[in-house]
Amino acid sequence: MVSSHGQGRSAEGVDAFLERHWSKPLPPQGAPPDHFSPREASLSPQSCAECHAEQHRDWSGSLHSRTMDKGILWQARVLPSDQVKRCLDCHAPLAEQKALLAQSLGWPEAPQDPPPEYVSPDLHRQGLVCAACHVRAHQRFGPPPGPGRPAGDTPGLPHDGFVASAAFADSRFCASCHQFPEDGPALNGKLLENTLNEWRASRHAREGRQCQTCHMPDRRHEWKGIHDPGMVRQALSAGIRTEAEAAGRVRVRAEIRNTGAGHYFPTYLVPRVRLQLVAEGGAGGERHVLDEAIVSRETDIWLSEEYSDTRLAPDAAQKLEGLLPEIGSTEWRLYVQVDVAPKEHYERMFAGVLNDSEVKLDRETRTILAAALAEARNTRYVLRLGERALTHGIAN
């Protein structure tokens, strides 16, 4: 194998690299080279942190480190193993992770032998670990090195250096988990996960902004999305204007536009966002909701029926409007309130299962599910956009 300075694998096209790199299910790593130290051979993120502390710190706070949280663990305990394995292709894709989970759940097909030394006993609980993207057959892969960083074939690097590929800075790298195939699960003729295609149809793709541009700025391993208020502010822009009408009434109009996300807002069907056009004023500072709208793709909890799809495509807008109340106030604070429930679908699903007397769960599974529901509800947050003052009929 030729490393990053050569013309071997590192020079192959992105599509060819990704087809090989994300061939599912991922094969086991196999035995590490004899000269590897235990740390070099380890698949544990904690071992990676010895040299990549910043990346590990970012990953530890990201959703990628929590892809095997309670919300999927309770399902792994009740669903058929074949179905769980398909989920693990993204949630814990390493073959070694799947083997550990199979052993912990007592699946008949679980390996009988204990895991090799380079596999930590809790690897299956750590989610999308570093090795899932960066290690194949104990060879390390990554993006071309940045300024001042050593090339992959620099002598003396740990684990024999690394193979560089431009694929790590390409949106297609993320498609393995964030884009269903054309024959994948769909409702109303629309794939349940269609993020790459949404991006391809947007101006963001034409202008050269990749997934990594927004979700991995400066190569940070945080992958922030709708769970983060800052990312929502980056995605949405809001403008509010007022117009005088007859009899001294004032009409307020707001436009909330998806200017920052290179895909639908939200791209997946789990979140639910409520937009409210709010006026605060009057002698007591009363709060008045002039108009509101839901932005989401709403389905039943078992994904068998789609009720509505009001998501915002890139550069699309949701408009709200209403009249200020006739309460004699001449000073108002106008804004758009954004109520974000990042896991609203899971909230409904988890609560539905817990409350369904026909669903039989053992005590431990029920405890895990109840904790998953609480965690899902705790992800909700509220923010304001487009705030402005209105004094004596004049917007400031």
UniProtKB/TrEMBL annotation:
Sequence segments annotated as region (Disordered): 22-44
Pfam families attached to this UniProt entry: Cytochrome_C554
Positions of the Cytochrome c-552/4 domain: 47-99
SUPFAM superfamilies the record matches: Multiheme cytochromes (SSF48695)
Protein name: Cytochrome c-552/4 domain-containing protein
Natural source organism: Thiohalobacter thiocyanaticus
